[in-house]
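Re: the 355-residue chain
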Amino acid sequence: MSFLFNFPSPDEDTSTASQPFTFSFSPIPNSASSSADEVPAAEKDTPAPSSQAAHAPTKEHVFQCTIESAPSENPDDKSAENKWNNFAMDNVGLFFLCPQWIDRNILATSLPNLLGSQPSQNGDVVKSDIVPKVYEGGFRVWDGACDLLVYLISESPVDFQGKKVLELGCGAGLPGIYALTKGATVHFHDYNADVIECATLPNILKNLKPIADGVDESRVRLFSGDWLSFVRFLRVEKLDDDPLAEDNRYDVILTGDTVYRQDVLSSLAFALPRLLRKEGTVYLAGKSIYFGLNGGTEEFRQEITKENLIECVDSKVYPDCVQREVLNPIELIANDQVTRSVAVLNARHTGSSGL
């Protein structure tokens, strides 16, 4: 078993700037149809936790997959060869935008305010990989996404054909893209709309380009916003047998490095059982501990025991200087008495950041 990333050499010339990579995107209004095929907006009278007042409401973004919309390269652009990285393992190859290319063509020009960038003494822009509750690192491919791919491809292959899949905290979207290529319907969700527009979407289109004319556009949906607003957007707050709510939930949820901060764990533990179908499974990848942030898989295990709605049955450990693991299966606990008041549940999560 082996996998590799095709990263540009540290000695590459980064002085040549290519043209900005842009897409036309329009948020879908939150007044969507309430049918099972079109996910409805949240009910206006649903009480929101006070902790969500300053966070990101859910938006859906238009997806079009055609030969014309797929990324194309200018053969005369010498920097284009360094635009894409490649994840390769066994017979799987997935492309994603090179972080250095994103730095030069997106972050440096379009997102300094989002990232909280500040000029240094020499006038250069200093960027942060993460600004909590503002930018959650979606333009980087983290270890969790790599571990998820290794696990799904080699360690415990999953039959995605016909499954409804959510990649939560998707960023570059590689695990979700892999599921998409294996026949799943995939919804991608990230905190930042800019990440969805400038990273997730281009990566999807790049990997689907060879089969663009054969892709059903209804198999892909793109969302941005915080986790709790997404739960309300789908109208899945209550753990009951409502057919519409169950249809809006997912067979498989993929998520990597979303447990890195302790203050988001309660929101994640709140969201997962409400987004998961009765026979569904969560694959969660992360480090056992994130030093300085107090998050990690161990803290997440403790968090999900508080409500006793989902449980982690097993995990695959990847030894490193800091232990990494994929928690799977994470499943709903069989319980006939799970229907509880959403107001009570929301009250228990006051104070969480709710990514």
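The CA atoms of residues 166 and 190 lie 11 Å apart.
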